[in-house]
Structure formats: C-alpha cells, structure tokens
Write a structure and sequence with these properties.
This protein is of the alpha/beta class and 316 residues long. The chain is built from 14 helices and 10 strands. The strands form 2 sheets. A 7-stranded parallel sheet has the order 1-10-9-5-2-3-4, with helices on both faces. Helix 1 (2-19) crosses helix 3 (35-47), helix 4 (63-73) packs across helix 14 (308-315) and helix 5 packs across helix 6 (120-128). One of its GO terms (molecular function) is DNA binding.
Length: 316
C-alpha cells in the first residue's frame, strides 16, 4: 500500500498545480510539504504517467508534415504553411508571409544577413516584414551578383536595400553581374574594391536566406540575364543537376554538380553557405520538388519554409 499512498499524494499535488493552478509554494504550505518535495512530485507525476502533455495543432498548421520532413531529410526545422491552391503565385505569397513573421521574431541584434537577390519568394518575404524597433541587424549582404537587364535589375538592389532598411541594417550590395561572360571577366570584376568589400563579408554572415531554383530558371532570373545558355543548362541537366542555390548546382542526392560554369558566377558558394550558422530556405511549387529534395540533402539548410502541397510531395 505504500506505493499507492505515494501515488495518491503525487496525484493530489499534480491536480492542485495543473487543474487548480496553485503555485508550488501554495501547495507546499497547504499540504505541509517542502517546496523541493512538491517540485520532485510534479516531475514524478510525469514519469508515472499521471500527467500527460498533449499538443493539439491548431487548424491550418501541419505538424505531421513538418515532422515527416525533419525525419526524411535530417532537417533541423521545417515550417509548412497552409495554401488554398497548388499554384506558384499563391505559394510564394504564403511562404513569404510566414518567413517574414519568422524573421521578425528570431532576428538577433547585430545579425549579418545574407540574402539571395533574384528570388521572388524572398521578395514576397521582404514585402511582409514590419520595420524593426530597437537594435537591429548590422548588415544585409547581397550574396549573388545583382546587375543584369536594366528593366529588372532594380529588383535585386531594391530587395537588399529594403530588407536592410526594415531591419535597421546597412546594405552591402554586389553591384556586378551574377553570371559573367568568362572567368577572366569575373576576376576583373572581383578586383573592384566595393565588390571585394561585400564578398569579404560572406564569411561573417550569421543568417542566410536563400531560394531554391530548378535547373530551368525562373521567369525573373531569365529576364535578368543572369543565366547560362540553353546548351549549358542542358549540359547541367545531363550531369545530373536538378536545382541550384544562387546558381550553385546540385543533384537529387544532394551532391554538388561542379562544372567550369562555377568559374563565371559571382556569388556565395555552397561551401561558404555550409559555414553559416543559420540557413533558411524559402521554396515551394511542383516544378521545384526535385530541386528542394536535392537541396535538403546537401546538409546546408537549417530550416525549410514551404507549402503543404510541396511538403506532401517531398514526403510521399
């Protein structure tokens, strides 16, 4: 009977704490126990199964899909957003809204943010961010060359400058082409002191926000001119590439696809990205499913923000 008497008292302590909402000090005084004993009994209540914690996900959240993504890809964290349509425009809008909230609540003072400049989803995130009060970020660093077709070039610079303003940071622009005509042209552009100043900050980035692209470039990237030729893209696909992060390509197994084309890209490499403390990827859509799967297997992404349709495809 000793054990049942012990459990009865533990149950009473748990009831007073969890149901009657009494403080531990009140329980201790009422039952003539020490507060340390009350604390130990509350812990015992959990180990004995007297108290069980239930988490009931609210409607519109997808904790099961998030857990499945974490387990399937060894991903530290995943955010799956609700979306009424499996359509790129709707998906980008919902991911952007969720990512904006996430950045607002997790941004640390003095953060150095790296941001890929040609992502429509990241642009949607920036559109939804509220101006930060108090100590903000230190720099927002553009991690892929932003020069291109003048009709869309402002997209890259606006994205970086606006994010910097909203987070109280200083923008560090990469005002060169993302893809140069040759390795020699790349070396010449990188000799510019302003370009060098920005690229020197790659190693100091504490938070990188990246998009994930399919081998076939997005409409925005194609219009910018920062792409490879159709023949070069076909060669990449033949080499097994399924997608890219800032024009650094990889296959579905998460292996980097290295080609001489890398020597023409001015931007952050996957090796540099892997050294960043926190990498958040924003991506969704049917056309990007294989690319996202490959990106997650690279082992450089700490959090994926995606939509429920894409999450279902990734975990099927």
């Amino acid at each position: 009977m000793g054990r049942i008497n012990e459990l009865r008292l533990i149950s009473r302590v748990a009831q007073m704490y969890h149901v009657e909402h009494k403080r531990q000090a009140e329980i201790a005084e009422h039952l003539r126990l020490s507060q340390a004993t009350v604390s130990r009994m509350l812990k015992r209540a959990e180990t004995e199964g007297i108290v069980r914690t239930s988490v009931i996900p609210p409607a519109g959240t997808y904790s099961d899909l998030e857990q499945a993504l974490r387990e399937r890809f060894g991903l530290p964290e995943a955010v799956v957003v609700d979306c009424s349509e499996d359509r790129d425009g709707a998906i980008m809008a919902r991911i952007g809204e969720s990512a904006a909230h996430l950045l607002e609540i997790t941004l640390s003072p003095g953060e150095i943010i790296g941001v890929s400049s040609w992502s429509q989803t990241i642009f949607k995130m920036v559109e939804n961010i509220h101006p930060q009060k108090g100590a903000g970020a230190r720099y927002v660093v553009q991690t892929l060359g932003g020069m291109g077709d003048p009709s869309v070039q402002t997209h890259a610079t606006q994205l970086t400058a606006r994010l910097a303003k909203l987070t109280g940071a200083e923008p560090k622009l990469l005002s060169v082409q993302g893809v140069t005509s040759s390795r020699e042209a790349k070396l010449l552009m990188m000799a510019d002191p302003f370009v060098r100043d920005t690229m020197d900050l790659f190693g100091a980035i504490t938070l990188a926000i990246v998009g994930i692209g399919a081998v076939e470039p997005s409409e925005l990237l194609a219009r910018s001119g920062n792409i490879f030729s159709a023949r070069e893209l076909a060669d990449l696909a033949e080499a097994g590439a399924v997608g890219d992060i800032s024009l650094r390509f990889f296959d579905r197994q998460g292996r980097m696809v290295k080609t001489p084309l890398d020597d023409r890209v001015i931007g952050m490499s996957l090796e540099e990205l892997a050294k960043v403390d926190r990498v958040i990827a924003l991506a969704g859509g049917k056309a990007k499913t294989d690319a996202i799967a490959g990106a997650l297997r690279l082992g450089v992404i700490d959090m994926l923000v995606t939509d429920r349709f894409t999450a279902e495809r990734l975990t099927a």
